[in-house]
């Protein structure tokens, strides 16, 4: 096992934390000014947890995810990720905008990470077929992205991320641009895939419904600079069905709790803070 630390020495993460975020701050330099995106952010995420982050626009959610992916470095503090193995990728990211390669067929898009890692061809094919089938794309393996709807393209992104078999899935509002029906279908598919794999998932959303349907924990963030202001356990039994959950009184209670927390935070302010 080895840890990945993004700042300072690689201290061991607390025994049961997959991701330990400690006193994390991130500022961006804008010429003479600075934007403080995140400030003194502390949080532990456990192996196999499905955690949703909700917060006002501009509070640093994407910044946090990019730091978890190793694409940005903290200004202060650290993120320590406990790695299980060197044989699989640590993270895969799914974005709101489709990020699949337009010149590749669906099956090649889904195989991409495996190919880069030099996974044997037969193993690649088996994994690709498995996740294409699970994502309802079995018949579209040879299609090109321009032949697919927005929802199907996001399915390809989801299939590609799972086929790549990372330890942690990072999802940045992946269903936000989809129509309601497609969104709900994809949420159910994601839940099924997660149930099968039990990966650690960090999922950003601006939908309270989505957070409550998907998550084990919902972290509500303050306005910029972002930090956690609430850590809410979501304990509805799994498997979950969206329409059944929404009829639960507890769903309504938690929905209102999160709504009030978000309402207590200022919305995005002009960029300059210094
Ligand atoms: N690369 C960057 N350079 C400068 N400022 C940035 C950069 N990325 C994000 N920011 C700023 O950091 C703040 C947080 O952005 P972001 O993480 O995208 O928030 P969210 O995803 O919660 O909407 C915003 O004020 C944004 O303008
Ligand atoms: Mg964002």
Which helices and strands, and how do they pair?
Blueprint: E1 3-5, E2 17-30, E3 33-46, E4 50-54, H1 61-68, E5 76-82, E6 91-94, H2 106-116, H3 121-134, H4 150-163, E7 168-172, H5 180-197, E8 200-204, H6 208-214, E9 217-221, E10 228-233, H7 242-245, H8 249-263
Parallel strand pairs: 4-8, 4-9, 6-7, 7-8
Antiparallel strand pairs: 1-5, 2-3, 2-5, 9-10
Helix pairs in contact: 2-3, 2-4, 3-4, 4-5
The protein binds adenosine-5'-diphosphate (ADP) and magnesium ion.
Written account of the structure:
With 274 residues, this protein is α/β, with parallel strands linked by helices. It folds into 2 domains: 3-90 and 166-263, Rossmann fold (3-Layer(aba) Sandwich), CATH 3.40.50; 100-165, no CATH class. It contains 8 helices and 10 strands. A 6-stranded mixed beta sheet has the order 6-7-8-4-9-10, with helices on both faces. Strands 1-5-2-3 form a 4-stranded antiparallel beta sheet, with helices on one face. Helix 2 (106-116) crosses helix 3, helix 2 packs parallel to helix 4 and helix 4 packs parallel to helix 5. The termini are far apart. The model is unreliable at 7-13 (pLDDT under 50).
Core attributes:
globular; binds adenosine-5'-diphosphate; 8 helices; 4-stranded antiparallel β-sheet; alpha/beta; Rossmann fold; 6-stranded mixed β-sheet; 274 residues; 2 domains
* CATH-defined superfamily of the largest domain: P-loop containing nucleotide triphosphate hydrolases
At CATH's second level, what is the architecture of the largest domain? 3-Layer(aba) Sandwich
Contiguous runs where pLDDT drops below 50 for at least 5 residues: 7-13
**What's the helix-strand series?**
EEEEHEEHHHEHEHEEHH
Strand order of the largest sheet: 6-7-8-4-9-10
> What percentage of residues falls in helices of 4 or more residues?
25-40%
Number of strands: 10
For the sheet with most strands, the description reads: 6 strands, mixed
CATH class of the largest domain: Alpha Beta
Could you tell me the CATH topology label of the largest domain.
Answer: Rossmann fold
> How many structural domains?
2
Helical stretch count?
Answer: 8
- Percent strand equals 15-25%
- Please compute the radius of gyration using only Cα atoms: 19 Å
Average pLDDT over all residues:
90
Structural class: alpha/beta
Q: How far is the N terminus from the C terminus?
A: 42 Å
Small molecules bound in the structure, each named once:
adenosine-5'-diphosphate, magnesium ion
Shape: globular
């Amino acid at each position: 096992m080895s840890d990945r630390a993004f700042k300072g020495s690689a201290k061991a993460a607390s025994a049961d934390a997959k991701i330990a975020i400690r006193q994390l701050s991130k500022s961006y330099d804008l010429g003479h000014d600075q934007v403080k995106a995140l400030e003194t952010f502390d949080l532990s995420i456990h192996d196999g947890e499905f955690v949703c982050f909700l917060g006002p626009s501009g509070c640093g959610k994407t910044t946090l995810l990019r730091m978890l992916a190793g694409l940005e470095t903290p200004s202060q503090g650290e993120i320590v990720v406990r790695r299980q193995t060197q044989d699989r990728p640590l993270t895969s990211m799914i974005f709101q905008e489709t990020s699949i390669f337009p010149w590749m067929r669906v099956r090649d898009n889904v195989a991409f990470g495996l190919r880069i890692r030099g996974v044997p061809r037969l193993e690649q094919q088996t994994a690709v077929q498995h996740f294409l089938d699970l994502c309802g794309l079995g018949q579209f393996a040879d299609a090109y992205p321009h032949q697919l709807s927005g929802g199907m393209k996001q399915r390809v992104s989801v299939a590609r991320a799972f086929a790549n078999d990372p330890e942690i899935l990072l999802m940045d509002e992946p269903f936000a641009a989809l129509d309601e029906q497609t969104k709900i279908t994809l949420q159910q598919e994601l839940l099924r895939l997660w149930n099968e794999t039990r990966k650690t998932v960090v999922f950003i959303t601006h939908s309270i419904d989505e957070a409550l349907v998907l998550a084990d924990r919902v972290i509500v963030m303050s306005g910029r600079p972002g930090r956690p202001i609430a850590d809410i356990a979501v304990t509805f039994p799994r498997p979950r069905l969206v329409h059944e959950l929404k009829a639960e009184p507890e769903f309504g209670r938690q929905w209102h709790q999160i709504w009030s927390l978000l309402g207590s935070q200022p919305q995005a302010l002009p960029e300059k803070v210094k």
